[in-house]
Amino acid sequence: MRVTNLDMDAVRSFVAGIDAGSFARAADRLGRSTSAVSAQLKKLEEQTGTELVRRSGRGLALTDGGELFLSYARRLLSLNDEAIGAVRSPELEGWIRLGIQEDFGETLLPRVLGRFARAHPRVRVEGRIARNGELKEKIGSGQLDLALAWDDGSAAPGQRIAALPLCWLTAAEQEPAWQAGRDEPLPLAALEAPCLLRTIACTHLDRQGIAWRIAFVSPSLGGLWAATAAGLGIALRTPLGRPPTVRVLDPAAHGLPSLPSLGLCLLRSGASENRIADHLDAILRQALQDMLPAEWSRSS
């Protein structure tokens, strides 16, 4: 049987087109003409022997084959880039200090550390899982080289890399701890202040005229999930890392305020050029793109 070797440039254009929502936008990002990117897609469909995308209104939609191929395409690109990074920079050694939100501790951190360690085995990573305020403070003081933090409105151009939806959360197997129209305040489960998401929750409840009380406070995300799953209160968080014991509430159906998206930023210290940080930065961005839905990965 003849072995087919996929064109990696075509694979990259395909993924870029899906992430951008159109191959015209992908062409701009890749610095190529739209016709060239379209030709690559056609070549990729010939190589795979299946139609990958179809027109859907003004945008694009994946076929069943395209949806299956997309997951493989992301893995192929990730391994390709990891391999190139490893052989081109075997001399990298030293250490790097990374700070990350607790929300990403179990979902993102293992894959990032694994990829980075394989590519740069002589670099030591010092990781810190911390709250937003601490991460920003340590970036400002130079105690961290990179940090993945929520955008509190102060992000500079280029720092914001994703926008995650916010949602109201309650116990999966119980009725919500609060019902609209009842003469009682909404019990809120939250992290200890200062907390950006706690502030957002209180602000939106106040704007809608909903009385609230702090029913449970935790210093950790694990404690917050446990309290919410036990029905002690309603929490506000992103869906990222949500355990199966907690479910998302439809705001309209439960009389709760609609919520905005929350920006995610990749912050770097103001130190001089850091090649190790450059490589970890690239791996973090790629891992987030692989993990998050395409609509979340766009910062606009």
UniProtKB/TrEMBL annotation:
Any Pfam family matching the protein: HTH_1
Domain HTH lysR-type: 6-63
GO function term, MF aspect, one: DNA-binding transcription factor activity
Keywords: DNA-binding, Transcription, Transcription regulation
InterPro entries: LTTR, LysR_HTH_N, LysR_subst-bd, WH-like_DNA-bd_sf, WH_DNA-bd_sf
Family: Belongs to the LysR transcriptional regulatory family.
Protein name per Swiss-Prot or TrEMBL: LysR family transcriptional regulator
Lineage: Bacteria, Pseudomonadati, Pseudomonadota, Alphaproteobacteria, Hyphomicrobiales
